[in-house]
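Fold this sequence, please.
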Amino acid sequence: MLCIAFAIFCFWNFSKSENNNELFSKKVKVALRAIGHQILLSNKDSITLILPVNKITENKYQISFEKHLYINPEILVSVVKNAFQKSDFPKNYFVEVIQCATNDVVYS
């Protein structure tokens, strides 16, 4: 079991207007919450809270959970891929699973 935080790094061209960037940020946050929900369901957990998604930098977002959580890397890859395809996000991104206690990357 890990207390984890996902860090999602997305790279894209920000030549669009500020409003489009704000809309994109909101879409990322919704997609990450959906990813978190699917990860919880894969653990047969429908009650653990998904904490608010944080925008760390222009291209970096973090999702965290209230409780320790087991993450199956294969399920994580599948869930992220499906969510990003549905949202029509850029195909260039990184996903890291970070153990909260040590801040170590345990999966990338």
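The mean pLDDT is 81. Residues 18-42 form the longest helix (25 residues).
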